Amino acid sequence: MDTKFARRTERIGRTTCSYWRAGKCNRNPCRFVHIETPSPPAACGYGNTAYSYGKKPHSSSENTPKYGSKKALLRDNGDRGDATRVAKAFKKSSPRICKYWINNNCVHGEQCLYLHSWFRGDGFSTVTKLQEHKKVITGIALPVGSDKLYSGSTDGTVRIWDCHTGQCAKVINLGAEVTSLISEGSWIFVGLQNAVKAWNIQTMSEFTLDGPKGRVRAMTVGNNTLFAGAEDGVIFAWRGSSKANSPFELVASLTGHTKAVVCLAVGCKMLYSGSMDQSIKVWDMDTLQCTMTLNDHTDVVTSLICWDQYLLSSSSDRTIKVWACIEAGSLEVIYTHTEENMWH
Predict the structure, then answer these.
(1) Phi, psi values for residue 204, rounded to 5°
(2) Do 191 and 326 lie in a common domain?
(3) If you average pLDDT over every residue of the chain, what do you get?
(4) What is the pTM of this model?
(5) Residues 208, 321 within the same domain
(6) What pLDDT does 311 receive?
(7) Of 111, 130, 163, which residue constitutes the final position of a domain?
(8) With contact defined as beta carbons under 8 Å apart, do 307 and 344 qualify?
(9) pLDDT of residue 39
(10) Nearest CA to 312 among 289, 328, 335?
(11) Do residues 143 and 121 touch, judged by C-beta distance below 8 A?
(12) DSSP label at 80?
């Protein structure tokens, strides 16, 4: 056996194979031991600093980042302080998202050199394009704990996409325009003309919630209540029911808007609704009564977001407004951004 290789094997052989722990190691022989070993003391723990960052067989990427080559790490192994510094630089220098984390099988956890988040790094990159809808996409939902993405479109279909392959796994033809789509827990809610479809993805049960007049353009869930804004300006509210024929019961119809409700948001125990009538209404979640109307926009209110103690609204009047609660209890605009370049 080559002396250099033997020394290297002996050196890292004290480290337990993390893939073996997970029952996934397919290397024979493996450079790491397949037994549980006690953690080495911190004073001589090279395996926990530079060398563990430089190992190649179980790295989270096929290509080693250019700022953290194995040769550089091994060269600094004689000085623990330098090795630790290089290891940290190596970790910070990698902007890649861990491909094993994407598939939910990265065994390195917080010690992984690669990003375990879609929302970090220097920017965004396209993973894949889902291009099978024929018309406008009106809603996208990824239920918690599911590996399926749901999308609805005015082409009359809901498509279910496999998040691992990026392929369409199923097409549900509803025969009517899908005008909104959201998820909550195990439920998928689909807004249609004069109705809301409710699907439970665990039990595969399906229910139709009647009541809305016209297209259901917006939906949200808050305080165990499903809210759906319709084309006639009315917001319908359903809560859980013990009735055998439907797990949902219509508990209220919120009236006040004079035109279609196009966006809804929940925050600070309030429901906020934006409408084509250019107004935002604030509803108490407990009483389901309107507590105030905001009229600062001069065109359709297109979207609403609750962020911390603030309400953000956008409008076809080319503005984005930030609202904050003042001492009197009402909401007041504290900042307005005007977008000069908008598509027509």
Answers:
(1) 65, 25
(2) yes
(3) 80
(4) 0.66
(5) yes
(6) 96
(7) 111
(8) no
(9) 45
(10) 335
(11) no
(12) H
- Rounded alpha-carbon distances, angstroms, from residue 237 to 89, 245, 251, 287: 53, 18, 6, 12
Residue type present at position 231: E
Give CA separation, 194 vs 129, 150, 177, 180, 230, in Å: 32, 21, 11, 12, 8
Q: Cα dihedral angle (119, 125, 129, 134), rounded to 10 degrees? A: 80
Name the residue with tokens 């302080």.
81
The radius of gyration of the chain from alpha carbons, rounded to an integer in Å, stands at 27
- Show the DSSP H helices in the chain as ranges: 3-12, 18-21, 50-54, 70-75, 80-93, 99-102
Q: Cβ neighbours of residue 202 under 8 Å, at least 6 residues apart?
A: 186
Give 154-211 as a DSSP string.
Answer: TTSEEEEEETTT--EEEEEE-SS---EEEEETTEEEEEEEEEEEEEETTT--EEEEEE
Closest CA to 235 of 304, 141, 140, 296: 304
Q: State both tokens at 91.
A: 């970790």
Would you call 291 helix, strand, or coil by DSSP? strand
Query: Would you state the structure tokens that stand for residue 326, as one six-digit string?
Result: 């003042």
Residue 192 lies in a domain: yes
Q: Residue 64: how many CB atoms within 10 A of its CB?
A: 17
In this prediction, the residues of the chain whose per-residue pLDDT falls under 50 are 1-13, 39-93, 344
Contact of 149 with 140, CB cutoff 8 Å: yes
The answer as to whether 48 is a domain residue is yes
With H, G, I as helix, E, B as strand and everything else as coil, classify residue 106. Answer: coil
Burial of 329 (0-12, 13-18, 19+ CB in 10 A): exposed
Q: Determine the structural domain holding residue 202 and report its residue range.
A: 179-338
312 three-class SS: strand
CATH number, domain with residue 255: 2.130.10.10
- 304 occurs within a structural domain: yes
Are 222 and 102 found together in one domain?
no
Residues, the chain: 344
270 inside domain: yes
Q: How far is the CA of 290 from the CAs of 256, 271, 279, 283, in angstroms?
A: 8, 9, 13, 4
The total number of structural domains that make up the chain: 2
d(CA 275, CA 6): 73
